[in-house]
Design brief:
Elements (H helix, E strand, L loop, with lengths): L3 E6 L3 H14 L5 E7 L3 E3 L4 H5 L9 E3 L8 E4 L1 E6 L4 E5 L6 E5 L2 E4 L3 E3 L5 H6 L6 H20 L3 H7 L1 E5 L3 H17 L12 E6 L10 H13 L3 E4 L3 E4 L3 E4 L4 E3 L2 E4 L3 E3 L16 E2 L12 E3 L4 E2 L14 H19 L13 E7 L2 E6 L2 E5 H14 L3 H17 L9 H11 L4
Length: 435
């Protein structure tokens, strides 16, 4: 008898957890074959992405090989080009050439992730950095180091200020954490430059909303705001970018900010692959699914994570947010539902309440909300590191992360370019469509 083919597309937290749960629950069944398809052969530990940006951890400390997690799952590294959800086929490109392969599924699970959304502002998209991947963090850190190098020798006052100013658009989790990390990195690194004073460095956080971190407890959000301002991070709320150039941005209230470093964290949208799928989607382009994560009228096709709009029956049907903790729990329920279908049973809806949130503000300060308990300051920062250290797979990886944190505390953070200016420039040209 032919094996039932379960194909998972996407190797992030959600996709990997589906595969692991299927391995655990299916046990020794030999009538099922699980295949995980991913563009990368590693899992990126996204909560530590700003740690990499800030130079506290090396790139190798925040990734783990996917194969190390999988015992029975077949892993395929390739860039998915086409998904036919009606035929349940996945076509991907092999890593080192343009050869294409197609896989046929009995159950197709989509965990496609997300990308940055610029809401149609193409000029800003060409100029802005993002922080969604390891490459993004490395590129931005290298850019900041190159900006310090150039500012140290720059005589023109306006040009110099643009090099020493960072603008962050979006005051949610990513924007707030990135602002703190970049402020700490540049302030620390500036000590090595004789012509740069630490007080010349500006980090400006911009958002159309009237407050930062709108999804957490207001008391914690206000504490975070005070901490950011205390450390010299400038806040511009109720404003957006009206126009942008390579050397400056203009805000909606008329303020012109000279800057060569613009980070966009104001919005996300599902992976571009979701646009090609013939199914119902919400306003963001996320796949509309049942509470069980099944796509309506497409038996054997499922979606989860950032690419899916999963109704939360505990919150009047509002969609779950795209967090790692949600993705991992969604994955466990989805794996159980797939096995239930294979056993002739009914799938169950996904029901989960958030366990809490951590937001790192930099300089060993954070805010945390765990169920009904609230923490702030050093204690919250210590809890954040403890919780996420437990989540890191393998003792060797944990040891490397602890070593990196210890080195940061004792000797300061890494503040050196990992790429030459020539390579850095080629990245700029490619990102802006000039190369």
């Amino acid at each position: 008898m032919a094996k039932k083919q379960i194909i998972i597309v996407g190797g992030g937290f959600g996709g990997l957890k589906v595969a692991q749960t299927l391995e655990k629950l299916a046990g020794v069944r030999d009538d099922i074959e699980v295949t995980l398809v991913s563009r990368d052969n590693f899992l990126l530990f996204t909560p530590f992405l700003t740690e990499t940006l800030g130079g506290m951890l090396d790139e190798g400390d925040v990734v783990s090989p996917l194969r190390a997690f999988l015992k029975k799952t077949r892993f395929v590294m390739g860039e998915v080009t086409t998904i036919d959800i009606k035929a349940k086929t996945v076509t991907y490109k092999r890593p080192l050439n343009d050869e294409m392969e197609t896989l046929q599924a009995d159950h197709l699970i989509l965990s496609l992730g997300s990308t940055s959304s610029f809401f149609g502002q193409t000029e800003i998209e060409k100029l802005a950095f993002t922080l969604k991947s390891l490459d993004d963090a490395s590129l931005l850190r290298n850019h900041l180091m190159a900006a310090l190098e150039q500012a140290n020798e720059e005589a023109d006052t306006t040009a110099r200020q643009a090099l020493l100013t960072v603008a962050v658009v979006g005051a949610g989790y990513t924007g707030v954490e990135a602002a703190g990390a970049m402020r700490d990195l540049m302030k620390h690194a500036s000590r090595a430059y004789p012509n740069i004073r630490p007080d010349e460095i500006r980090v400006i956080l911009i958002d159309m909303a009237e407050k930062i971190l709108p999804s957490i407890d207001p008391a914690l959000a206000n504490y975070a705001l005070r901490q950011l301002q205390k450390r010299g991070i400038e806040i511009r709320l109720g404003q957006k970018i009206e126009c942008a150039s390579e050397c400056a941005i203009t805000l909606s209230k008329g303020e012109v900010i000279p800057t060569r470093s613009l980070l966009w964290s104001a919005g996300v949208m599902p992976s571009p692959l979701t646009k090609t799928l013939e199914c119902a989607k919400d306003k963001r382009g996320a796949i509309l699914v049942e509470p069980t994560m099944a796509i309506k009228d497409l038996p054997g096709v499922w979606a989860m994570g950032d690419c899916a709009s999963i109704p939360n029956l505990l919150e009047e049907g509002r969609p779950y947010t795209g967090t790692a903790q949600n993705a991992e729990r969604e994955a466990k329920r989805l794996a159980r539902n797939v096995l239930a279908i294979l056993r002739g049973q009914e799938p169950k809806p996904f029901l989960f309440r958030s366990l809490g949130e951590f937001i790192v503000l930099g300089d060993h300060v954070a805010v945390a909300q765990i169920k009904w308990f609230k923490f702030s300051g050093f204690l919250a920062w210590f809890l954040w590191r403890t919780v996420y250290l437990v989540k890191i797979p393998h003792w060797g990886r944990k040891a490397r992360v602890v070593t990196g944190w210890t080195m940061d505390l004792l000797f300061g953070r890494a503040s050196v370019e990992a790429e030459t200016p020539r390579v850095l420039r080629s990245h700029f040209m490619e990102r802006r469509g000039e190369g």
